[in-house]
Write a structure and sequence with these properties.
Number of strands: 6
Strand content: 25-35%
Order of helices and strands: EEEEHHEE
Number of helices: 2
Distance between the termini: 6 Å
Oligomer: single chain
Radius of gyration: 12 Å
Length: about 100
C-alpha cells in the first residue's frame, strides 16, 4: 500500500489536498486531479464515512489517512472530494489493485 502519503497528498491545517495522481493507480483512471481536496473516506460498501477534516483536526497525520485508504486488493474504497475550481463535491469509488506507480492501490 502507499504508506508515504506525502508523495501524492499535502496537508494544510485540517485539509488534505491531492498533489499528484500516480500513473497506473486506481486514482489515475478516475476524475481525481491535483488540487482536489479529500473530504470523506468510506472503506467499502456499507462502511461508515470518515470525515477527513475532523480526523485531521485531531491527529494532523497523513499516515492516518493512508491507513484508511489501505485494504485488500480487489476491494472498493469510496472517496469524496471537493473540486475548488468548479465548486463541486464528487465521489470516486476506487478498486484497490497492485500498482507499478508507487503502491498497491
Amino acid at each position: 500500500a502507499l504508506r508515504d502519503m506525502s508523495a501524492v497528498c499535502s496537508a494544510a491545517g485540517m485539509r488534505v489536498w491531492v498533489k499528484r495522481v500516480l500513473p497506473g493507480s486506481p486514482a489515475h483512471d478516475s476524475t481525481i486531479r491535483p488540487g482536489h481536496e479529500l473530504r470523506f473516506i468510506s472503506k467499502g460498501v456499507g462502511a461508515p464515512k470518515v470525515d477527513v477534516v475532523a480526523l485531521m483536526a485531531t491527529t494532523q497525520r497523513l499516515d492516518q489517512i493512508a491507513s484508511l485508504l489501505a485494504g485488500p486488493v480487489g476491494h472498493p474504497c469510496t472517496l469524496r472530494f471537493y473540486d475548488h475550481d468548479n465548486e463541486t463535491l464528487y465521489s470516486a469509488t476506487l478498486v484497490r489493485r497492485l500498482c507499478s506507480g508507487g503502491g498497491d492501490g
